[in-house]
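Why do we care about 3D structure at all? Because function follows from shape, and shape follows, mostly, from sequence. That is the central idea of this module. The next example makes it concrete: a single protein chain, its amino acid sequence, and then its structure expressed as tokens.
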Amino acid sequence: MKKKVLSTILTFTMVVSALTGCGGAANTPAATTDTQATDAAQTAEAPAADAAQTAEAPAAELTGIDAIIAEAETMSMEELAKKAIEESNGKTFYGVGNSSRGKSALPVFIEYLQTIDPSYTMEFEWQQPKNNKIFEQLTSDSLKSEGTFAMTLIQDGNQIQSKMVDTDILKTFVPKEWAEANGTTADAYEGFLPLQTLNKVFMYNNTGSATYTNCWDFVYDGSHPLFMGVDSEIVGKNFLMMLTEDKYATWLKEAYDKLDDTKKAYFEPTIQEMQADANDLGLGANGAYALAWIKLWVNNYNEQTDDGPICNTLVDASATDQSGLLVYSKLRSVEESATVSVNNINVAAYQDGYTGIGGYGYCHYLFLTKNSPLPWTACAFIAFMTCTEAGFEPWGKDMGGYSANPNVAKEVEEKFNHSQGGGDEFPAKNDRGYDWWTTTGELVLEDPAYCSEVSFSVGSWIDVLDHYAPGE
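And the structure:
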């Protein structure tokens, strides 16, 4: 039955590909590129003055929110702050986000503006929709001539790409100082603006005899890791889809090669079974290893409603030999007792000899809405959160959340010393940092464009996999 479902998915995918190949929406970027190439050639033949005028034409044609963003991307933090004061003094700012900490950042932002103009005041409201309703809320708000929400802090790169950016509902603003810190310019930068990268990492209870020395151990016979289900938090599904990208599929193949013969023999039938699906889905040379790991993970993980309860379970001495994949920063809130301790768990990737992926990372992104009622204030607030330690502090105070601005990241580490957050007493809380996690720690990073590209093919394949049901 599953083969028939997969066959139907793949057949429909080929039909859609064929249609878009004959002039559908998928050809739009390519057509635009060709037009730009032609225009460039014509410009090169024109006099220098005409060439300069042609080069300036796109910026001159910008209107509304796009024109404001283009101008804002040339301005310093202080210049943006003055524009914000002029625009929003005495008004109410509405924001919406996946993180409640936007509500914590706004008062600090207002205090900053008051250092420039002590008479400045602004009320604010911050909403945090549950059950992934943020996309519906932003879509509905986009239908108004002037929206309610000035900006958003949002996660799930796949849906952001397909539902928010491709539809022009959300607009990316790249602060000048953020671009400079990253060695680029707003014009040259491609992609969304990340506030931070969060990591979810493999952990296991160490009060028993079980060991996890390879990422394949988490999908080995009898293993049922605790995990927020892919239907509860969609970034978890993005993680699984990302495993099929060549880089991460290769990591899984390399980890598999280091298994002993007994474990290889256990996994080999599933890998062979997945080879045909990997070919049908157009994956690379190691795609079957990725699909095998994904299949076994979905077949066996023990679905939980939230990362908090997962953490509370794993740090209890009674959770002998259990494992999970959860937000690293949850360890911050563990209250030590006779039976509960951070020392009852190990972060898998920190253990000597551990091989393979250590977890996955996803971003909180910042956008203006296309009909923002306070666009200058939104730009200034985004710049404040991404370019100052004070603005990022609501997120930066915790380990496992890394500013995308290297200057801010350095200031955060100097202030909070996350690398020694647990000291000698709780080594699991000594965060090794973004650079370590994304190299040695083999953190799988969400790529919105790739997730969007494979969401129908690989994503639909994931949707038809059987889920583990405890007790059955």
